[in-house]
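Internal tracking record. Fields below are filled automatically when a chain is submitted to the structure queue. Please do not edit lines marked as system-generated. If the sequence contains nonstandard residues, flag them in the REMARKS field before resubmitting.
Queue: standard
Priority: normal
Entity type: single polypeptide chain
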Amino acid sequence: MKRLVAIWLFLMLLVALGVPTMAAEQIKLAVLGKSVHPYWSEVELGVKAAAKAYGIDATFFVPPREDIARQVTAMEGFIAQGVKGISFAASDPDALKAVAKKALQEGIPLVTLDTDSPDSGRYIYIGTDNYSAGKEAGEQMVKILNGNGKVAILTGSLTARNSLERIQGFKDAVAKHPGIKIVTIQSDNEDAQKALALAESVLQTYPDLNAIFGVYAYNGPSAASAIKTAGKAGKVHVVCFDTTPDIIKWIKEGVIDATIGQRPYMMGYLSVAVLYNMNKIGVKNTLQMLPKTNIDTGVDVVTRANLEEYKKLLKNLGIPVKW
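SYSTEM-GENERATED OUTPUT FOLLOWS
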């Protein structure tokens, strides 16, 4: 959690360097997420907070559910509107390369958040180091299972880079412990109802299952709900991602053992901060003051034991807490 403080101080530096004047030209930016979900609502809160701080206009959009074609259409719309910068999370990193190239040709700076698309030409990625975060989830699972057990992996996508990196990190962590076996990896294509059905299905298919790793924000709650309904709370463990209110609810109940808390609010805020500075002082100058081509916003391992400490830290940093 100490890294969260360091990242926040860096964010404040960007604010200080980019403080607008009353006569500043109105800048319109756009941020594109992946689907309607409380996780992306937290990103939107960060986008709006930064837009207010800089005195600019920032549009935030997500499709109702993960929809690659809708993302392409949204990007084309942003270009047509003449926005001065776009931050996007690609559901498929290759699918947006053509429209990203078009934006860059129009002189529109691009950054990615949450899910990277490194071959798109974007200038910087802002978000979680998903491989390292997945590895942390795997290490937590190893501790919970004491190095032995059968695990199912449930995810929202088998094409999105963040999903693939988290799964690989998780697999690499548990591979060091031959007593742990991954029995299945299944995707719901970011369909929350299907996610619950998949969780119920793996519990029936693998009656001796010991744990579920939930890759996306809704996978953990779906698994927890299925486990509780099946009367297997405490018998089938859950490690998942994010700290949305529904996840915190299941942590308090003890059905979710641990979650890897990302910083979606900061991803949204930093996206606007970086794009604003690219407009005010130039892309090259902005990149020179950034630590590297990837801004790792870091993660926090949240459990029932440290939940209050985590909540207090977020409040002290001024990050909205909705649980």
